């Protein structure tokens, strides 16, 4: 270990002398550990990842390349679950994520389970990710989003600030949830949800148009709107409306919407978030 300008360098990583890095931790080339940070023995940090001042990363935690972790971020600490009995569980985080100030990401509850964050996500300040959650890629969680245990958030979802997501909720691909929404049921892909209690307000048209799916031929907006209307606005019960739509030839987007709604009905018998005024 060498020192230069009050910074310690160890195996290609840059470690502030007023931080603590367990000698068993694995640090990739270009990792930066800033003042006051604590890195536990079972932590793996990929190349170019930067850990901000006074952050704590513990437990069996694997973080990929080029992540930017701001001050006071806590990753891999015990879950806030009364059922937790000290099992060896994990946190796995991908590449190129930005975790802003005071983000917390808890490890899973039972033996062998994982909390998983994908790549290219932005978790803004004071976001909490509970135990056993699974987040995909290219997701934005705005300030003070509180995500309970066992929540799934699919790729490209955007979640507004100052809201809570109930345990076991599933938020679909390219869905958008407005700020301060009460999220207690599943939010289907391509949809816009808002309100207290949360209700579906229609399709996330802005997000769809920006996604490139229309140009790629994977999404026919008129067809998706037609199928949306059939599923959520007909006088039939939801399962019957879904059955009617699935009899037709569907593109990628409509298949994804139908598969999500079918799974949501089967999973919790409550189905997705109800529709409101559009």
Structure commentary:
This protein is an alpha/beta fold and about 280 residues long. It has a domain at about 1-150: UDP N-Acetylglucosamine Acyltransferase, domain 1. It contains five helices and 30 strands. The chain has helices at about 205-210, 215, 220-235, 240-245, 250-270; strands spanning about 1-5, 5-10, 15, 20, 25, 30-35, 40, 45, 50, 55, 60-65, 70, 75, 90-95, 100, 105, 115, 120-125, 130, 135, 140, 145, 150-155, 160, 165, 170, 175, 180-185, 190-195, 200-205. It has a 13-stranded mixed sheet with strand order 1-2-3-6-9-12-15-18-21-24-27-29-30. Strand 1 (about 1-5) and strand 2 form a beta hairpin. The mean pLDDT is about 95.
Major sheet: 13 strands, mixed
What is the count of helical runs? Answer: 5
Global morphology: elongated
Overall mean pLDDT score? 95
The N- and C-terminal alpha carbons lie at a distance of 62 Å
Low-confidence stretches: none
Strand order of the largest sheet: 1-2-3-6-9-12-15-18-21-24-27-29-30
The CATH architecture of the domain at 2-150 comes to 3 Solenoid
* Range of strand content: 25-35%
Q: Structural class, please?
A: alpha/beta
Q: Return the CATH class of the domain at 2-150.
A: Mainly Beta
Output the radius of gyration: 21 Å
Task: Write the topology of this structure.
Blueprint: E1 2-4, E2 7-10, E3 13-15, E4 20-21, E5 26-27, E6 32-33, E7 38-39, E8 43-45, E9 50-51, E10 56-57, E11 60-63, E12 68-69, E13 74-77, E14 90-93, E15 98-99, E16 104-106, E17 114-117, E18 122-123, E19 128-129, E20 134-135, E21 140-141, E22 145-147, E23 152-153, E24 158-159, E25 163-165, E26 170-171, E27 176-177, E28 182-183, E29 191-194, E30 199-203, H1 205-211, H2 213-216, H3 221-233, H4 238-246, H5 252-268
Parallel strand pairs: 3-6, 4-7, 5-8, 6-9, 7-10, 8-11, 9-12, 10-13, 11-14, 12-15, 13-16, 14-17, 15-18, 16-19, 17-20, 18-21, 19-22, 20-23, 21-24, 22-25, 23-26, 24-27, 25-28, 27-29
Antiparallel strand pairs: 1-2, 2-3, 29-30
